[in-house]
Amino acid sequence: MKVLVATDKPFAKVAVDGIRKEIEAAGYELVLLEKYGEKAKLLEAVKDANAVIIRSDIIDAEVLDAAKELKIVVRAGAGYDNVELEAATAHNVCVMNTPGQNSNAVAELAFGLMVMAVRNMYNGTSGMELMGKKLGIHAYGNVGRNVARIAKGFGMEIYAFDAFCPKEVIEKDGVKAVGSAEELYSTCDVVSLHIPATVETKNSINYALVNKMPKGALLVNTARKEVINEAELIQLMEERADLKYMTDIMPAAHETFAAKFAGRYFSTPKKMGAQTAEANINAGIAAAKQIVGFLKDGCEKFRVNKK
Ligand code: 3PG
How far apart are the first and last CA of the chain? Predict the structure, then answer.
């Protein structure tokens, strides 16, 4: 059995070593395709792969067509919007993610971005503190929970909205559950986004919603760039000089954001929320174990596509 690790944004070496150990202990072969850049290289590499581990790498119908021997794709991470699930089902390929394995890393980066924003991008002028500020967590999944845990240490007042998470689950963590996104945005000084990119959420963070935030508000996005209605956010930030936007997923309109909103907009050059050795080890090794469990015992825990 051939297991391909196809990561345009590579894992830390220590994580690759851990993945290799799991795969070889099961008697399988590990093939590494890193920083491949062009899709053609991925199409070539998947030809004889029985299993693939990916990150944000795109697995679409063309890749699935080329992967004649493929049985399973594991997205080492949470969001699987980069995999065409219906096409995978049509090709009889099981798709899994590794929920929770990289969430702390993403949550820590959200705070890195928050501190940078409230300290005026570290330009030396007098900034503000997070203590006592109202933090809104938009979606209370694995990352949202870690954000809440860290926010307690900062002494923030914590609110969350999640259409799919029961109020009691949120409130058990000492977080105030609000009834709508609108209420979250109108209540909180800082909103941290943790929603997936779905048909419903794409472009949903728009002018009307963000405009509900109080004066001096900060929006932090370590989720997906697609959830932001960029044209509307640009318009709003033009009208409201008090708003700040921080992200680790470079907007399509990055040049415009950077030119117009210097000092209150920042994006890392590459998506890097989950880019820590710990997150790479956790998610990568979980992916390897899930592949072995699937190929040896047919275990489909964490399957995300229909059969
Ligand atoms: C995820 O969905 O797990 C995160 O967004 C991390 O993505 P990455 O593996 O591309 O860094």
Answer: 22
Amino acid letter at 78?
A
Here the tokens at position 46 are 């998947």
CA atoms of 227 and 205, how far apart (whole Å): 6
CATH topology of domain 103-267: Rossmann fold (3.40.50)
The complex scores an ipTM of 0.99
Q: Which of 11, 55, 104 to mutate to test the pocket of ligand 1 (most atoms within 8 A of CB)?
A: 55
CA 188 to CA 216: how far, in whole Å?
10
Per-residue pLDDT at 263: 97
Q: How far is the CA of 51 from the centre of ligand 1 (A)?
A: 19
Q: Are 237 and 262 in contact (CB under 8 A)?
A: no
Domain boundaries, the chain: 2-101+275-297, 103-267
The predicted model scores a pTM of: 0.97
Q: Atom of ligand 1 at shortest distance to CA of 55?
A: 9
For residue 241, the CA-to-ligand 1 centroid distance in Å is 31
Which residues' Cβ are closer than 6 Å to ligand 1?
Answer: 9, 55-56, 77-79, 102, 271, 273-275
- From edge to edge, which strands make up the β-sheet containing 134-138? 176-177, 157-161, 134-138, 190-193, 218-221, 244-247, 265-267
Given this chain, do its domains 2-101+275-297 and 103-267 carry the same CATH topology? yes
The CATH architecture one would assign to domain 2-101+275-297 is 3-Layer(aba) Sandwich (3.40)
Q: For residue 268, what pLDDT is reported?
A: 98
| Res 174: pLDDT | 97
Give the tens place of pLDDT for each residue, 99-145: 999 999 999 999 999 999 999 999 999 999 999 999 999 999 999 99
